[in-house]
Amino acid sequence: MDSLIRVEMDGKYGYVHQDGSMMIEPKYDDAKLFYQEKVVAIKENGEWGFIDRNGKMVIEPMYDEVYGYHEGLAAARTNGKWGYIGELGNWVIEPKYDNALSFAEGFAAVAIGDKWTYIDKEGNFLTEPKFHTTLHFSEGLALVAVEKADGYKIGYINQTGEMVIEPIFTSGTNFKKNGARVQLGEKWGYINNKGEFLIEAKYHRLEGFYEDLFVVVRDYQENKWGLVDNRGNVVIEPQFELIESFNYELGTVKLNNQYGLIDKSGNILVEPQFDEIDAYSSPGYLRVKVQDKYGYMDIQGKIIIKPRYDAVGIFNEGLAAVKVNNQWGFVNEEEQWVIKPQYDEVKGFSNGLSPVKVDDKWGYIDKTGKKVL
Predict the structure, then answer these.
(1) Which among 56, 201, 303, 370 would be 20 to 30 A from 95, CA to CA?
(2) What share of the chain is helix, strand, coil (3-state, %, to 5)?
(3) Which one-letter DSSP state was computed for residue 129?
(4) Any residues with CB less than 8 A from the CB of 146 and at least 6 apart, and which?
(5) pLDDT, tens digit (0-9, with 9 covering 90-100), for 180-232
(6) Cβ-contact 93, 107 below 8 angstroms
């Protein structure tokens, strides 16, 4: 299925093909992203409706707010109440809820007043509305908060509404791979779907790192960061000032105010030597800063774009946006100029196109610098 790219021109939204050719003229006040859906939500005159991939209006704008379709139904709000519509815009579940979430695993969380519960696709309550907060079902369990004598506590219910993990936690997450992170008092641990601790609740911080590994901080005052696996075994003793994860089984570490790279086994791949490492700026590349200049290295730690530019933007599809003397252009992986600095702002390439700004006007260029929109 052809991917359609949302574009904005003069405050209006539409969609183009990957080659930049116009598919749906920018004419909507707002529009949601097209992934692989058959329809997408658009906004006209303050109301939301849906169009198909050809731009045909499938459901006329009539809703105050909508979410995307999940399991064949979309949450929609009208006159201050939420319900669920089918693919033709018909109300499958009438709008009568004060708040609502999308369906997941056959159930959706809805609120009556400030109390939450779940409904099935016929609108039947799983329990009476009694929860303070809820998350969607994941792996057959849903996080719920109930009021106790010492405040709100987190537990988990199953798809019959039974509380299968007692509400004793101060915070928690959805289940993923048969486990969930939970906070007991001020300390975090990790439980299985029976509520048994796999990682004892003894860490001030416990966050996902990669697959079955977690970043942990044992004590905020000491502030040393390490890694443990999903059975609580120490992989890296807490020793760093910071550990942040990203893809490619790598992580950034901070030591003595300098940043480097480690792999998932804790081996140092790049010694801490940079003032900054941005692991999320571009797929496959890491933005680095040395003093006041920026560049890029690859995920093996090899410098690709030397840190000598005033700023660098997105590095994607073989071209990196770089700024020199207040103007933006693009260089390739050999650091050769492909599009010389001439733009006031750029967004970086995606599907062969990059938004660029000159004299307060935005347009799109291809990878040769030719203006296409």
Answers:
(1) 56
(2) 0, 65, 35
(3) S
(4) 130, 131, 132, 152, 153, 155, 167
(5) 999 999 999 999 999 999 999 999 999 887 778 888 888 777 889 999 999 99
(6) no
